[in-house]
Amino acid sequence: MAWMIREDQLDPDQRDFVNTESRKVGNIWIKGFAGSGKSVLLVHSLRDILRKEPNAKAAIIVFTHSLKDMFEAGLRELGISNKVPVMTYYEFVDKRHDFYDYLFCDEVQDLPSRVLYAMQTRAKKVIVAGDSNQSIYDQDPKWRDATVDPDSIGDLIKARPFMLNTIHRLTRSIIVAVQKILPSINIWGAKRDLTKVDVNIRICEASSTEEEIKYVYKEAKNGASIGDTCAILIPTAKLIIKFVNELLASENKPVWNVVNNYYGKPDFGKMNRHLKSNGIKAQYIGNGNGSLTDAEVNRDIIIMTYHSSKGLDFDNVFIPFVNSSLYIGSNKVETLFMVAMTRSRKNLYFTYFGYTHDFLDKFKNDCTEINIANLLKPKNPQKTVSDFDF
Amino acid sequence: MRNHFLTPVLRQQFTLFYRFGYTFVPDALLIPFEGAIQQSQKDELLKLLSQITPFEYDEEYVILHLQQEGELKPGNTKFEIQQLTTVYPLSKHAKLSISQKIDDRIVLGEPLFESSLAIAEEFIIKQECLKGIEALWEIYLDEATDKDQVLALIGPEKIFHGLDLRSKGKKASELEDEEYWAYLLTYERYDYFPKERIGYFFDAGQLFAYSKEIAFEGSKLHNLLTQLFSLNQKLNFEKIVEKIENDPLAAGYKSKSQFGELKLYVLAPLFLFLKEEIRNAESFTAIKGSPAFSYAKTTFPLEFKAAIILLGAFFKFKTFYDEYYNILNLDIYQAQPQLPAVKAFFKAPEIDTKRLNGNEKEESLINKDLTEGKEIDEATPTASVPQQMEHQVISINTATEIGQTTQQFTEHTISADDVRMQEQTLTPELEILKEDRTVKKALLKERGKSVSPKTKKESRVGKIKTIEQLDLTFAGSARELNQSDVQSGVPIIVTEASESIQQETLLGKEQKVKPASKTDKKKSEKQPSINSAKKGQMSKATDKNDSILGETLELVTVPEPRSNSQNE
What we know:
Strand content of chain B: 5-15%
Number of helices of chain A: 14
Strand order of the largest sheet of chain B: 3-1-4-6
GO biological process, one term (chain A): recombinational repair
Largest interface: A-B, 42 and 50 residues
Shape of chain B: elongated
Domain (+)RNA virus helicase C-terminal (chain A): 29-139
Structural class of chain A: alpha/beta
CATH topology of the largest domain in chain A: Rossmann fold
GO molecular function (chain A): 3'-5' DNA helicase activity; ATP binding; DNA binding; hydrolase activity
Number of helices of chain B: 23
Helix content of chain A: 25-40%
Region (Disordered) (chain B): 505-568
Shape of chain A: globular
Number of strands of chain A: 15
Domain UvrD-like helicase C-terminal (chain A): 291-353
Radius of gyration of chain B: 29 Å
Oligomer: heterodimer
Number of strands of chain B: 16
Radius of gyration of chain A: 23 Å
CATH architecture of the largest domain in chain A: 3-Layer(aba) Sandwich
Distance between the termini of chain B: 42 Å
Helix content of chain B: 40-55%
């Protein structure tokens, strides 16, 4: 991520924020979709403040350790890492009790209310960033507090909202699809930037579940073999086990008999070892199992849940089982589905057997539709039609 | 009589208008209408949008509907916020975006154009493409004539068409009956081709197959490339090209992959490869010196030139301006000397306290000479200007492009009467420029130095022209200024090709000059001197290619400071 930004490189929203909004009195909530530049603006504001008030006491509060690493890298690049601590919200609430001049916070929609309350009472000015459309957690993993209701964030920290609408990370076809699933959100791409690879969305119909899984594995293996990152995203752990066993069966390998771990949950570490011992180039990543680096080095296909994929992206993403009976979750299903479908940089495959899921129906006319049965048929080179020797 | 006007303004200007309660709009930017907006006014607005500073996002401009009692006076018109009837965004999504950021009591109008806005945008995009080509060419290549030839060989319209298809979300696999360039510019790799160099030859084969509506997989070329890859994954471009040129399996492909002298079977993989290099880099600066570019330049000179044209258009000026400006070494990149405090020559009008206090007697605004404590009555400007004072006029290209260096400036001697007329019509912006020049003159005078050698060479002397003979165009106050000159019929000395302009040039004295050599001129074009910036003049295009609109604005330099006795 480029942390140094110049005014001529900003979109109008970002420019407004940097030049006007961030300098006004009062707390601010920067609202924006993933890829709208929220984090960069937070850091920019921080740097701006430290220029004017070198002795100001400031800190950044984040949700995860990976976000903490990301911000620390940014502060290092700007040469202000020694001035500003970056901490998780647990550290902020449980371990430190300092009062700050300025507090900055990213992914605010994932925090419990008590963190927001603590920020409001322990800082003169608070600038938070987040997106209510991306809230996929119901509670925090440690305290088990409910995450904040996005509608009340502004009231809790007495912040005025500032919207960032231009999405720089997603490409045209994905933005169009997201807008159709979540019509209430206002996002649009940087329309003049046509230099990115527009993600190719394929909707692939199979004549059986077995055929569907065979196709997904074949394509993902092709991608992984050339060094692309390939992820198969599945909404629930139960469905992941179903996918893995169908895959093993289609490859004529023994299925994995579910073994639970100490907590009574499926032991995915054992499942990964089973896959590896049977020569399946795939590993489950989540809950401490599997590794992104290991998968990349070994050119393994990554299998994970929609939840776990948040914040990551891959060259090729496969979303199987998207038929009318797909169970995505009990709530925030559109958001979860949107999180999964925005993970791809190049190819996005939806596969299904039977009738398409309602979500697919909303945008399938804009996509390439594929009949898997035709693709899996052996090709006959003689059928190449050419009026010259090609 | 109430008159209605439409005018495009930057959103920032609207924000300041709202904040301060008034703004100024030059008459050239005011489109009169009857109160109901017709298509003709929309067309005029679209035309205007192509003639003002370009914009990247729809929300950067808004259209204001302003009203005024009585006729417009020439020059800049002051509008109070009460005269603003409606604010029109440029598009629906601009409306949505702007409405989230402005006072929620403001009710935005419905966008005046949605699809037709594309006309203005298209103009900007084409300029971006052409300037992108110019910049990238300048970064890697020298011969400007070659650039035009190669661009003409491909055809700019074909490039624009391909990029237009891309902007509409078309992929190469979906195109039908298009020219090869459209396939090349819309193509992206969605297949799992090798990431090594040979992968770009697979890409070239795939897009060729799309263009002929035939299958690539299973073709002889596909087989050849697969064989080559299985034998050696690390084959370089030259080796693969050699195979394509000599292997019978590629004979059909090769024979159909020529475009004039251009070998498309070389150009396509080269373009796609360099495209990825640029795209994957954190910034263009990071890969500008990549060996890939120098290798391509020396190994495939013609195809490299064509690739530069395509890359420049594809990534546009936005990607390259940073590096391009380094090459141009813009004047504004130079450290400016610290300016000493000088007498303030131009003064802000003082508030007429008598009027504020309810005094009914009409009095002219009084300007106070802040430095000397003298009062100057603007109603009688003749008293403040020496009758025989010489003044200079510097030509400025109004379709200003960054990077244009000062190739010449013209000087005009005008009479004191003209100066008085000009002072009465000067806009605040020009006054600022005047003030700036006064400061710079004072600095030069203090240093007792002449202007830079470069400026000496670039200056031109001495034909006499009237203002009608000058290249006069463009909007606003400056035009008014020139019109007043025209009306006065004053002879103007236009200096050209000056040999050695002394420091006194800026002080209104005579000068001698020598014509510049071609080499000097080229050098100076690339490395504009700081002094040209100091002198306050801007570039004047020497030919049509130097400017977008080819328009020239006249800027009046300041007269000598008035003496106290004259003021009195």
